[in-house]
């Protein structure tokens, strides 16, 4: 039993492909429809519901490793004019000694060998990245980069910052993720649809400023919603546990939410949540939350906000697996600091004082608000949840009965008719 996963634009061909696969292999084929999360990720949950033993993933993919099932990726081959792409590369990099790393969307990976044959004799310092997927990676070599399912070896003495990046593909989330991750490198791109090459003018510094502003919002937040954006990428359960522990020690309350694909209407139901953190693959983690009622941050941005041991170094991490134990960028939580010795911080947004230290994991409890509440004419100290605290801060809290405060009156007959002309109203003559 094999599951065939198609993106929305290829579902029209799914039935024909499944029929030919069954005739050729004798295996039972299941076609997976719209996935719960991004179509670039392998939907292992839906495949397991059908009892599948393997998954064939068609179309663009983020190449995130899966937890259980073996996966075969069929990227497809979108048309690419290799000659025009090579010409655009020569126009963007006239200096033949330029150090350039060539990246591509997965649907154009088939043509990178031909492009390499045309450019390598002219550019001795050019590097072509390779796709890495299908199995656990081996030990990395010195100077080797492995991110987003791409692998390439940098041999320059100055490292990657001595190179420029050339991307073959259309503008989208993949290119944005590359530019934020390798923000020390200038980027150029070639769009196969329009056959035009250009230097990317996206102001990476402005984008980073926007993300660092969200880090400040995360420091001010008291209630954090953890959005589960994947159920198949390796390590997502470990990251959920890490985020819960980090928020608990940072004195913040957290809720774990599985809502599928996030949209403003879904997340607007959780008004008491101050900020959301999305646990998803590298390409789907970076959401533009300008249309949302509350901002959405990445796990790395939440770590910058809550983990005092992690400082901004200029390197932006998109893959949450880099934060897990054993990864290159993992940092253990520092020991707790007594409240009397903690140095308070001032919010750059609200100007209020806030705590930046971590609590003792043995003694810290889930934070809750306390207030005096009147119960049967007896004042007692009651625990109020964040939802109740949010309701208390609102000016309108719904209809109130006000028992004993409203005078008793007999029922009377009300108005009759329609709103534009009740029977007891005189109609104005034109």
UniProtKB/TrEMBL annotation:
<dbReference type="InterPro" id="IPR016435">
    <property type="entry name" value="DPH1/DPH2"/>
</dbReference>
<comment type="function">
    <text>Required for the first step of diphthamide biosynthesis, a post-translational modification of histidine which occurs in elongation factor 2. DPH1 and DPH2 transfer a 3-amino-3-carboxypropyl (ACP) group from S-adenosyl-L-methionine (SAM) to a histidine residue, the reaction is assisted by a reduction system comprising DPH3 and a NADH-dependent reductase. Facilitates the reduction of the catalytic iron-sulfur cluster found in the DPH1 subunit.</text>
</comment>
<dbReference type="InterPro" id="IPR042265">
    <property type="entry name" value="DPH1/DPH2_3"/>
</dbReference>
<dbReference type="GO" id="GO:0046872">
    <property type="term" value="F:metal ion binding"/>
</dbReference>
<comment type="similarity">
    <text>Belongs to the DPH1/DPH2 family. DPH2 subfamily.</text>
</comment>
<dbReference type="InterPro" id="IPR010014">
    <property type="entry name" value="DHP2"/>
</dbReference>
<keyword id="KW-0479">Metal-binding</keyword>
<dbReference type="Pfam" id="PF01866">
    <property type="entry name" value="Diphthamide_syn"/>
</dbReference>
<dbReference type="GO" id="GO:0090560">
    <property type="term" value="F:2-(3-amino-3-carboxypropyl)histidine synthase activity"/>
</dbReference>
<protein>
    <recommendedName>
        <fullName>2-(3-amino-3-carboxypropyl)histidine synthase subunit 2</fullName>
    </recommendedName>
</protein>
<dbReference type="GO" id="GO:0051536">
    <property type="term" value="F:iron-sulfur cluster binding"/>
</dbReference>
<dbReference type="GO" id="GO:0017183">
    <property type="term" value="P:protein histidyl modification to diphthamide"/>
</dbReference>
<keyword id="KW-0411">Iron-sulfur</keyword>
<keyword id="KW-0408">Iron</keyword>
<comment type="pathway">
    <text>Protein modification; peptidyl-diphthamide biosynthesis.</text>
</comment>
<dbReference type="InterPro" id="IPR042263">
    <property type="entry name" value="DPH1/DPH2_1"/>
</dbReference>
